[in-house]
Amino acid sequence: MTTTTLAVLVPLLPFLGAVAGLLLGRTAPGFVRPLAVLPPLTATAVAVVVAVRQGGGQAVDAATQLTPTGSVPIELALHLDGFAVLVAVLVGLVATCVQVYSTAYLRDDARYPSYAALVSLFTSAMLLVVYSGDLMVLLVGWEVMGICSYFLVGHYWETPEARAASLKAFLVTKLGDVPFLIGLFALAADTGSFRITKILAAVGHGGLDHPTLIALLLLAGVAGKSAQFPLHTWLPDAMAGPTPVSALIHAATMVAAGIYFVARLLPVFAASGAALVVLAVMAAVTMTGSGLAALAQDDIKRVLAYSTIGQLGYMAGALAVGDRGAAVFHLLSHGAFKAVLFLAAGVVIHAAGTNSLAAMSRMGGLAKRIPDACWTMTLALLALAAIPPFAGFFSKEAVLVAAEHTAFGDRDAAPAAAGWTVLVAGLLAALLTAAYATRLWLLAFRGRGTTAPDHGRQPAAMTSVLWILAVPTLGFGLTAGVLGDWFDGHSLSPSLATAVLSTGVGLIGGLVTYGAWRHTTALAPRPPVGAVAAHPRAEPALVEAEAITSHTAAYGTIAGAPDPTDPGRLLLGPLHRHAVTGFHLDALCTALFVRPVQAGARLVHFLDREVVETYVRGSGGAARGLGALVRRAQTGNVQTYLGALLGGTLVLAIAAVVLANVYAGA
User: Measured between alpha carbons, how far is 521 from 532 in angstroms, rounded to an integer?
Assistant: First the structure.
């Protein structure tokens, strides 16, 4: 088979698996799990073959126009460059691991067949975005992902949290998609095509008439999809969905789509220096704000959610300084270790019976109960904190090196202001990242109190994928000097200055957090005996919805009590109460947008009920009254009818005489 034929199979196989899973979910449930795992597994193998054949060399392009669509044609096109083939491998690998993990995690869930089919469709849509060479075809995958996320985040629809989170994710991302769609049309109008290669060629020859406007419109959609400030608030709330869904959204799909889109069309954004500065500021606020918020969260999944927002800020920062190689390199590295973090968090949640770090901190021996999750999560947290030689160190250093070169004028791909903004924010975010990563590990695995309840050995389907994804977490960063051909042909190796500076900052953040934890632990009283001994969720079934709804069901009031050993409270001080709410951005959006819209809706409802309906009711009442009068006149008496006729004739005659005299006198 040719490379293009194989590339077509990559998104097609998960799509066919989703269709087959939906059709056979009720009639042949025994086929559901094979149909969930085998298509993405095969697609991953095919994606690896495509990547090897492409080899990081010249991009492979193919297109066919099925039907004319007017002055700007829409084509089924493929554009396979080094970025596309590597991202496709990541998507396939993470999706396969998520499907394998889900076979055990949701084995007792009655809605597993529809869940597995939606995950396959989600995967297919992301692969379509990755391989597409036409922006309209890319938009199809972009929107299908939004629909799938709505259903997957709301999987536990019985809980109000899941229902609200799914609706919020859908509405916020659609809010960004409206200007995004307008930007796509404006881009096509300026360049005369939706084909990525033709657009880039037109941009290279100065073919954009409104570069800043187009770039800012497109950035609105990217901010919504990739959870950048100020459209990031949906992502922490999306943790109400199943943990495997969180891993898929955060590691390889949905949030990665916006970053990948900007990387693919970076010359469009680079045509406007103002747009790059806006992107840099957006990335800087996202990085630092999410780091502070993560340091205050009690839910383990919300900590990881804010962590994802921050790492996406690093990727956006790399794009803001004009280095898409560093951005995609960090996207790939982050995809591996973030998938480990979320999937390991699912094991931790099952073993602890709660999402609450405060409850876990009152629980001893949790690390010994789940050694696979503990070790792999430790490796992934070290990668997240950018400690060498883990993958996160190399990819984060690539971002900081790019920002350094731009800030000092060694690269003119972006304004120096963008470089300084990203560099300073990146170093501050490195400090915060190491701090909240250390805090999470200490509270989850160094708890003090009664020994955690033993649920037995975790299923192999859950633990095996943790070790599979731990391999790229450990070794992918070492390929920075080998995969240069896949990343625009330039080296992504770290420089000595930024490596020492950022690693030192990270170590300071980790050590300060550890010191704060030791201090608070020494001052805090030991938990009462038996505080967490009773555990009603010892059964092997994984019903995460219980933990989403409330921690009190498992641990009583102690689960919701503030943790006196939490170092985040000491480090943040009075800022903690603001950081724990995400700096009240949801409340601000409610005050500025939600309440005015609701007030407008109430006003329209009032006008419709009291004004418009009044006229409707009045016209109906008048017609009924007139009908009643006419009905009274219909007596059926002939004498009455003749009398009325003669009377009417007399009145008309008198009126005619009077009017004639009036006109004659005039």
Answer: 18
Q: pLDDT of 552-587, one tens digit each? A: 333 333 444 567 778 888 888 899 888 888 888 888
3-state secondary structure of 62: strand
Q: Which residue has the tokens 């069309």?
A: 265
Helices in 25-58 by DSSP H: which ranges?
32-54
* Residue 278: Cβ within 10 Å count: 18
d(CA 253, CA 255): 6
Q: Please state which of the ranges 118-122, 280-284, 636-640 shows the lowest mean pLDDT.
A: 636-640
Residue 127, number of CB atoms within 10 A of its CB = 29
Report the run of H or E that residue 61 belongs to, with start and end. Answer: strand 60-64
Residue tagged 């007017």 (tokens): 70
User: Confidence band (pLDDT; 50, 70, 90) for 527?
Assistant: low
Looking at residue 144, its amino acid is V
Write down the residue that tokens 């086929």 correspond to: 31
Give Cα separations from 356 to 110, 440, 541, 550, 553 (angstroms): 26, 11, 19, 10, 12
Other CB atoms within 10 Å distance of the CB of residue 98: 32
Considering only CA atoms, which of 71, 185, 59 is closest in space to residue 133? 59
Residue with tokens 């396969």: 96
Q: Cα separations (Å) of 332 from 278, 315, 440, 503, 549?
A: 24, 10, 23, 20, 33
Distance of CA 28 to the CA centre of its chain: 33
The secondary structure of residue 296, as a DSSP letter, is T
- 398 by DSSP, 3-state: which? helix
Give the C-alpha separation, 324 to 270, whole Å. 11
Give the model's pLDDT for residue 44. Answer: 95
Q: How far is C-alpha 400 from the chain's CA centre?
A: 24
Q: Which residues contact 67 (CB under 8 A, 6 or more apart)?
A: none
Q: Which residues pair with 195 in a beta bridge?
A: 134
Burial class (CB in 10 A: 0-12, 13-18, 19+), 212: middle
Which residue matches tokens 């009036």? Answer: 662
**Tokens describing residue 75:** 């084509």
* Whether pTM exceeds 0.90: no
**What's the number of CA atoms in the CB half-sphere (13 Å) around residue 272?**
23
The answer to whether 321 and 270 have CB atoms below 8 angstroms apart is: no
- The number of angstroms, rounded, from the C-alpha of 395 to the middle of its chain's C-alpha atoms is 21
**Which amino acid type is present at position 595?**
R
Q: d(Cα 255, Cα 290) in Å, to the nearest integer?
A: 15
- Per-residue model confidence (pLDDT) at position 551: 40
User: What is the token pair recorded at 177?
Assistant: 């998609």
| 551/389 Cα distance (integer angstroms) | 37
d(CA 641, CA 237): 77
* Partners of 462 in the β-ladder: none
* Burial (Cβ within 10 Å: 0-12, 13-18, ≥19) of residue 623: exposed
Residue 221's CB: how many other CB atoms inside 10 A?
A: 27
d(CA 281, CA 287): 10
Mean of the per-residue pLDDT values of the chain:
86
Q: How confident is the model at residue 532 (pLDDT cuts 50, 70, 90)?
A: very low
Q: What is the DSSP letter of 452?
A: P
List Cα–Cα distances, 641 to 632, 645, 649, in angstroms.
Answer: 12, 6, 12
Alpha helices in 72-210 (DSSP H): 82-105, 112-131, 135-153, 160-191, 196-204
- Give the angle subtended at the CA of 545 by the CAs of 540 and 549, to the nearest 5°: 130
Residues 630-638: contacts with CB within 8 Å, 24+ apart? Answer: none
Backbone angles phi, psi at 514, to 5 degrees: -65, -40
d(CA 512, CA 509): 5
Residue-wise pLDDT for 81-122, tens only, equals: 888 999 999 999 999 999 999 998 888 888 899 999 999 999
